[in-house]
Amino acid sequence: MVNPVTPSRLAAISAYRNLLKTQRDVFKNDNGAIQAAKKETHARFMQYKEETNCDVLEEKLALAEQVVSLLKKNVSLAELKNEGGIGNL
Hints:
Layout: H1 7-26, H2 31-47, H3 54-83
Keywords: Chaperone, Mitochondrion, Transit peptide
Organism: Phycomyces blakesleeanus
Subcellular location: Mitochondrion matrix
């Protein structure tokens, strides 16, 4: 029997896709980093595949959003710093 697509399942799928997209964008010229990030993301999401506790699911979805934010902010900042665009950070 196929699992029903519940709102929490849709949120998890959306968070997963958002993480993968962000990883591709942030590590666009580094295939090794993309593959490592993709593998880690898949492993983390699979750990909670059968989770039914809404509090745990909400916590993990919030964590996924934080990771997206950190990747966008910190990796972009590191690129600017390495290129000399920000000065003495």
